[in-house]
Amino acid sequence: MPPLVIPAIIFVVALAVLLKASDWFVESAEKIGLSLGISPFIIGVTIVAFGTSLPELASSIAGVVGGTPDIVIGNVVGSNIANIALVLGLVAIVANRVPVDFKNMDIPLLMGSAIMMWFFLYDADLQIWEAVLFILCLVMFLVNTFGNNDEDDGERPSATWKDYVLLVVGGALVALGAKYTIDAIIEICQQTGLSSGFIGQTVVALGTSLPEIFVSLAAVKKGQSSIAVGNVIGSNIFNTYAVLGISRLFGGIVVDENSLAMSIPLMMGITFLLAFMTLTSRITRWEGGLLLVFYVFFVVQSIILYKV
């Protein structure tokens, strides 16, 4: 059996566990939130967004602890690009037209987080005080969001003890799946010579963005586009503030030249493109197609820059 087969199998299985565990976490957290009377949009931009960002957080922390800190930036930036260009692109194509409000959908906060990331990473280093500031911004975002919550007066589902158990078990399996995902990536990098930064911003970023894809498409099919868009916006804000900030507390983070030259500027460009699209209060199908083109461009440029 070729030596690459075993780590490849471990990677696929571990990533599958990571995604399924995240799904359990999201479903239980969403049900618990609804049972407490939290509005669907707030759930999308906070609870669901945090749950779908768990794979990024877990794999990034595991990367720092496991000796591949360059995977963090690739994971965060690649996931943020995938969330907007791939997830919202698919959502707009499936739904044909997605209503979005520039003021009410936290777009300005999303733009602010992207600018803050670029400013802090421009010197190719993330200081501890900058990581702490990221975490403080996350807390302020949560306080502001829940402070604007219009309590849902509709019928509330009842959360049972099983939902709380799934919440805990899902979180534990997320951590376990992340560990073996990173271990497999390290082995694959050693055997193929591929940069862990490249794998982080393409394979891992796409894999950890699968929850956003599934959750958003499912929300659109149920006619809940606010949860779909709120999920993407909230997930990107969580990725920037929580994943970068918390991961940095576990060790140094490496920012490679390709991320500074291409990935981070492209992420900012796509973020501002989304903000421009929301000025018309909707994302149309052709705009969704344009976002998908940007994602293909990002993947191709990554392959060229990392000389894969």
SSE topology:
Blueprint: H1 5-35, H2 40-66, H3 70-95, E1 97-99, H4 107-121, H5 128-147, H6 161-192, H7 196-208, H8 210-221, H9 225-248, H10 257-277, E2 282-284, H11 285-305
Antiparallel strand pairs: 1-2
Helix pairs in contact: 1-2, 1-6, 2-3, 2-6, 2-8, 2-9, 3-7, 3-8, 3-9, 3-10, 3-11, 4-9, 4-10, 5-9, 8-9, 10-11
Give the CA-CA distance, first to last residue: 24 Å
Q: Can you say what the CATH homologous superfamily is?
A: NCX, central ion-binding region
> What can be said about the biggest beta sheet?
2 strands, antiparallel
Main sheet: which strands, in order across? 1-2
How many distinct beta strands?
Answer: 2
What radius of gyration results from the CA coordinates?
Answer: 18 Å
Low-confidence stretches: none
CATH architecture: Up-down Bundle
If helices are DSSP runs of H or I spanning 4 or more residues, what is the number of helices?
A: 11
Mean pLDDT: 80
Succession of helices and strands: HHHEHHHHHHHEH
Q: What is the CATH domain class?
A: Mainly Alpha
Shape: globular
- The structure class reads mainly alpha
Total domain count: 1
Helix residue percentage: over 70%
Walkthrough of the structure:
The chain is mostly helical. The protein has one domain (5-146, 161-305): A middle domain of Talin 1. The protein contains eleven helices and two strands. It has a two-stranded antiparallel sheet. The protein is globular. The mean pLDDT is 80.
Could you give a quick summary of the protein structure above?
The chain is mainly alpha-helical.
